[in-house]
Design goal:
about 300 residues; about 0% helix; mainly beta; globular
Length: about 300
């Protein structure tokens, strides 16, 4: 059976960071430039959102042990907000840390982040991009949150920190720095939260795939699903062999990320954007949230973040 793609939400400017909360069967994601957290409950087909003041919101991760607290990023800040999932305003916010608070880096921002299987936050930044395609490269970094108000730097000279995924069996972490047009693998120590030995496991240039890799997720077979911004597709990749297993094309060019969800974790929720590039607007349904079924694989639930 061929995969079926459905549109399940209205368009946003830059959808990103889908997180499937398994206990509540809820999908959270962000609209980065809309500065909003979105909540979608498939069982009731309800969609709510809250706009956050202060800058681009690029990730949303429920906090372990709470029902209404979320770790988000606002510009260069990591913040915990309290939201009931219904109201149009948050009820509380707490600053954890502001990174890269130095001359030459004030216009950086967080871009993507995710909790690893132990609940440890990994989050990365990018340099200024006043216009799509006009990026100040190698100004970002990749961090972990190691204390409530402390981060540890793992990578520097990052251009656009993006997709993250972990294979506990192989003790590997997969990571994307978008302009490299590669998916990279690192040896991964979950106890220490450390990575080493970078290796390219998939290269878009080798396969003549246009666009840049963005967010990604992993299925239970250990294969990756990689969103391609400006490529209009998801790539199904075996990182152990570098084989391209399948390509799923979407009716939107700017595909940004993916997360497995649904009662059986066999539905793939895919975010997209409708950014204007070189004066060209993206037509409907760009910016929509998509649901893909009939993939024949299952994924892992998203992991809540543990605050050290």
């Amino acid at each position: 059976m061929a995969p079926v793609i459905e549109i399940v939400s209205d368009r946003v400017t830059l959808g990103e960071g889908p997180h499937w909360d398994e206990p509540t069967q809820t999908l959270y994601y962000v609209d980065i430039f809309g500065q909003a957290i979105h909540k979608y409950v498939p069982s009731t087909n309800t969609h709510t959102k809250v706009v956050i003041e202060g800058g681009p919101v690029t990730m949303v991760i429920p906090v372990e042990g709470t029902a209404d607290k979320f770790l988000i990023s606002i510009g260069r800040k990591l913040v915990i907000v309290t939201w009931d999932g219904i109201s149009d305003k948050i009820s509380d916010s707490e600053l954890l840390i502001e990174v890269e608070n130095k001359a030459g880096y004030f216009n950086n921002r967080f871009n993507d982040g995710k909790a690893d299987p132990s609940g440890r936050l990994w989050a990365g930044t990018m340099g200024p991009e006043p216009e799509i395609g006009k990026l100040e490269k190698e100004k970002g970094a990749l961090y972990t949150l190691v204390g409530k108000h402390q981060v540890k730097t793992h990578l520097t000279k990052v251009s656009i920190a993006n997709g993250l995924a972990w294979d506990l069996e192989l003790k590997k972490m997969y990571y994307i720095d978008s302009p490299r047009r590669t998916v990279d693998e690192y040896d991964y120590n979950i106890e220490k939260g450390e990575i080493c030995n970078r290796k390219v496991v998939f290269n878009l240039d080798v396969h003549n795939i246009p666009g840049v890799p963005d967010g990604m997720t992993m299925d239970t077979n250990g294969n990756l699903w990689v969103a391609v911004f400006d490529g209009g597709c998801l790539l199904h990749v075996n990182p152990r062999t570098s084989e391209l297993l399948n390509t799923i094309n979407f009716p939107a060019r700017q595909i940004t990320s993916a997360a497995f969800g649904g009662p059986n974790l066999d539905e793939l929720y895919v975010t997209s954007a409708q950014l204007i590039v070189k004066g060209v607007k993206q037509p409907h349904p760009a910016g929509a949230l998509f649901k893909v079924t009939g993939l024949g694989v299952k994924g892992y639930p998203s992991v809540k973040v543990k605050i050290p």
